[in-house]
Amino acid sequence: MLMTPRESTGRSIVKIVLVLSLVMNVALFYWTAMLGRQVDSLILENGRLAEDLGGVRQQSEILQNQLAYYKAQADYYSRLFRSGPTHAGLVGRSSVNIVAVQQMEQGPLAVSYKGVVMTVLVELRNGEGRLLINTQPRVGIDLQTSGRTAVLVAQNVTGVSMTTTDVVLTVIADSNVDVVDGPSAGAGITVAMIAAIRNQTLQGDVFISGTVNPDLSIGPVGGLDYKALAVAERGASVFLVPKGQSVVTLYKPVERQLIPGVTVVVYETVRVSLEAFLKERGYRVTVTEVSTIHEVYLIFAK
Q: How far apart are CA 67 and CA 25, in angstroms?
C-alpha cells in the first residue's frame, strides 16, 4: 500500500515525537532519582549539622560558665589572707552524689555528650589545711578550685575553722570517665563538707548541679538536660539547679515538606522545663531552683 507524501511526513513526525517523549521520560526518571538522592543527603547532613550545633552549644555554655567561675575564684583568692592555725583539726565524713557532663568521641570530628553520676566521699582529718583529691577509678575532673571554695564556704556556714584540718575528696565512678565541667560539683561538695563537720547524713535521692561562690551563692552550669536524664536514671526524687535554670533550650526535629512527596527534617530550638523534659521520658523528678548554699543544705538534710 503506497502512502502519500503527507501520510509519510505525518508518520515521521509521530516517530520523532515518540522518540522525544521517550528521551524526556528517561531524563525525568534520572532527574527524579538524582533529586531523591540529593534530598536524602540533605536530610542526613541537616541531622548531622543539628547534632554538631547542639554539641557546640553545650560545650560553649559549659566553657563560658567555667571561665566566669574561675575568674570569680581568682579574684577572690587574690584578696584572701589566711590566718594561722588556732585549734586541733576536725574529724568527720560524709558523701554526696554529683553529676557532670561526659564528652564521648564518635569519630575524627564528631563528639557527643551524656550526663554521668558520681559519688564524692568527704573525709576530714587532723592536719595542715590541705585539700587532697583521690579518684576511683581514674576520673578526669578538676576539683581543686571548687574544693577550696567549698572549704571556705563550709567554714562560713558552720563558723568552724578548718585551718588545721585536711580534707580528702574521693571521687567514685562506675568506670573511667573524662568530664568537662568540674566546677558544677562545687555546691554538692560544699553540702557534704558541712554535713561532715556537723556529723549529719544527707539524703541519697537528692542531686544538685551548681557551682558555689565565696558569698554562698549558687552559680550557673551547663548541660542540664544531659544531667537531668542521668540523675533520673539513678533514681533521683529531687534535682536542684541554679536559679533561672529549670528551663532549658533544646533542639527538636520538625518535618517540613519542600515539594509534594519530598519531606526534610530540620531542627528548631525550643524552651522546655526540665520537669516536663523528664516526664516525657517517663521520669517523675521534682526540679527545684536554689540560690544559696543555705537553701541547698536544708533540702539535703531533711
A: 61
Tell whether pTM > 0.90: no
* Cα distances (angstroms) measured from residue 278 to each of 119, 131, 225, 274: 22, 36, 9, 6
Within 8 A by CB and 6+ apart from 275, the residues are: 246, 285, 286, 287
CB contact set of 202 (below 8 Å; sequence gap of 6+): 94, 95, 96, 191, 192, 195, 300, 301
CATH class for the domain made up of 76-300:
alpha beta
* Distance of alpha carbon 224 from alpha carbon 209, whole angstroms: 8
Give CA–CA dist 118/138, Å, rounded.
Answer: 12
Residue ranges covered by each domain of the chain:
76-300
More confident residue, 229 or 52: 229
pLDDT of 141 above 80 = no
Give Rg (Cα) of the chain. 30
